[in-house]
Fold this sequence. Notes:
The protein is of the alpha+beta class.
Amino acid sequence: MIPEVLEQHPLITVVSQFTHRLDGSVEQFKAEVQLIDGSRLYINEVYIDEELRKYAYYRLTPGGEILQGWDNAPHHPEITSYPHHLHQQGLVQSSLVRSLDDVLALLATHLQD
Length: 113
């Protein structure tokens, strides 16, 4: 994830937090952004040797309720897309999301209608 992507994407209105940590070959990006519908997207990505290894993207209402969350934490082996999965409406589902680009593309189909 690069700050320019966050600052230039048409769905993102405000980047309210951004942190970047580098420790040898491990790099972490965290951000909180506001989307055009007023919801917030929390972003956490961990790269090892420049490859995205861990991610979590959670979209919340302005009041803080989870709308959707995508991550690859290995805690739902029953999901066909394991470890990649979606949290939505209290359920855990398979997910094709693998990156921030995937999340933003998916949200674009819903938020720009």
